């Protein structure tokens, strides 16, 4: 055990099982630890560092905005945030943005807005349909602890109805919506923590249909799939869905905490001053970084470059699946959000992750046996080949005997 591990254990609550390396700095697509070892970062802090580390556009925005002001509160007009909101709306669907500090807070805002809709315009409807194994955040609903009636009003208690539907089970979705009359359906276009599981075209089409015909709110959690990760700014843009509500976070702040929702025209008129808010969000610095991320994605062509890199990565992975059918069950996901579903035990896959770490390649494991890749969109062909060659050799040496 190294010194940092010892101190971490002594002073930080163990809510996560950590890798045994302490990070000193990031450099492009690499992380460098306190012993000077370099790691190709195929995880980007869980889909956050879309541009890799210490990207010049991010550093420029940090310096420019950092010199101006870091925090002003919501009492003032916030030019970097207004600019970011405008660009998000112009590159998705007509509506308005509420900014938050994290993904879970974006979910909280979404719950409150849906609830407000139920009370005003969605009379007779209640509850939210979500998918089995979906992940939308970890807060318990801070409202339960807030005891100021003007703040909690009659916003949702923790016991508002939730209906769980199996991902891609079209019949179950139809049945639940007909019998329960839910107010909203909320899905991740690709379930992230649920094992990198894309929703099928048929399922998404049915969802869109039901929402239109039954007057149900169509909601997408793009916290992980957004910011160019799947090849378009948001993943729903490759489906026929027309969201009423979109949740974003993770990549948007260029490494700083930032999240929020885009509310379409069915919802954008509902929140009134006092209905929701937070001290920090939108952080002007996070918003400035968000604008820098959009500059690089939309104006400097990284979205397109990322698509090309992803295509090469997918070609290499598909070839590996053909070569090692007894080890690789399936490659799932889209663009730079990839799950390599294996036929090996959780112990073997965890060992693979640690062995790769020793070789200087950082991959993640989710759903126990899925190797999860969330690379930066700046990943190069050479870096892709290095990873694919390493995986090929590892499988041949360790698993194919
Ligand atoms: C990470 C994630 C969240 C929660 O975001 P936090 O910033 O960790 O609170 C919500 N939904 C999805 C799809 C996520 O991937």
UniProtKB/TrEMBL annotation:
Coiled coil: none annotated. InterPro entries: Aminotrans_3, Aminotrans_3_PPA_site, Class-III_PLP-dep_AT, PyrdxlP-dep_Trfase, PyrdxlP-dep_Trfase_major, PyrdxlP-dep_Trfase_small. The keyword Transferase applies. It comes from the Bacteria. It holds the Pfam family Aminotran_3. Its cofactor is pyridoxal 5'-phosphate. GO terms for molecular function: identical protein binding; pyridoxal phosphate binding; transaminase activity. Keywords: Aminotransferase, Pyridoxal phosphate, Transferase. Gene3D superfamilies: Aspartate Aminotransferase, domain 1, Type I PLP-dependent aspartate aminotransferase-like (Major domain). Belongs to the class-III pyridoxal-phosphate-dependent aminotransferase family. This is Acetylornithine aminotransferase. The lineage of its organism: Bacteria, Bacillati, Bacillota, Bacilli, Bacillales.
């Amino acid at each position: 055990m190294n010194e940092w591990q010892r101190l971490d254990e002594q002073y930080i609550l163990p809510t996560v099982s950590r890798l045994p390396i302490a990070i000193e700095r990031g450099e492009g697509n690499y992380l460098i630890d306190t012993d000077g070892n370099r790691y190709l970062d195929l995880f980007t802090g869980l889909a956050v560092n879309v541009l890799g580390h210490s990207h010049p556009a991010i550093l420029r925005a940090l310096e420019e905005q950092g010199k101006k002001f870091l925090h002003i509160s919501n009492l003032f007009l916030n030019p970097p945030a207004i600019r970011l909101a405008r660009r998000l709306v112009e590159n998705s669907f007509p509506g308005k943005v509420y900014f938050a500090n994290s993904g879970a807070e974006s979910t909280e805002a979404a719950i409150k807005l849906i609830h407000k809709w139920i009370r005003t315009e969605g009379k007779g409807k209640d509850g939210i349909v979500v998918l089995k194994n979906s992940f939308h955040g970890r807060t318990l609903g801070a409202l339960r602890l807030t005891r100021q009636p003007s703040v909690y009003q009659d916003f949702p208690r923790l016991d508002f109805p939730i209906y769980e539907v199996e991902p891609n089970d079209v019949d179950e979705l139809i049945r639940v919506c007909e019998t329960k009359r839910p107010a909203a359906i909320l899905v991740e276009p690709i379930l992230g923590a649920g094992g990198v599981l894309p929703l099928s075209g048929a399922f998404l089409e049915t969802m869109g249909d039901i929402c239109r015909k039954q007057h149900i709110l169509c909601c997408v959690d793009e916290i992980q799939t957004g910011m160019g990760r799947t090849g378009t700014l948001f993943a729903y843009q490759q489906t026929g869905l027309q969201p009423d509500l979109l949740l974003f976070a993770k990549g948007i702040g260029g490494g700083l905490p930032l999240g929020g929702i885009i509310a379409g025209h069915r919802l954008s008129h509902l929140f009134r001053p006092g209905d929701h808010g937070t001290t920090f969000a939108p952080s002007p610095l996070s918003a400035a970084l968000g604008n820098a991320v959009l500059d690089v994605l939309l104006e400097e062509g990284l979205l397109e470059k990322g698509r090309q890199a992803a295509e090469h990565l997918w070609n290499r992975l598909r070839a590996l699946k053909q070569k090692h059918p007894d080890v690789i069950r399936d490659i799932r996901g889209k663009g730079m959000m990839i799950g390599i579903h294996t036929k090996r035990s959780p112990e073997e896959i965890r060992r693979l992750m640690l062995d790769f770490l020793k070789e200087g390649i950082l991959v993640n494991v989710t759903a126990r046996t899925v190797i999860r890749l969330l690379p930066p969109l700046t990943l190069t062909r050479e870096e892709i080949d290095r990873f694919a060659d390493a995986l090929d050799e590892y499988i041949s040496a360790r698993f194919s005997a």
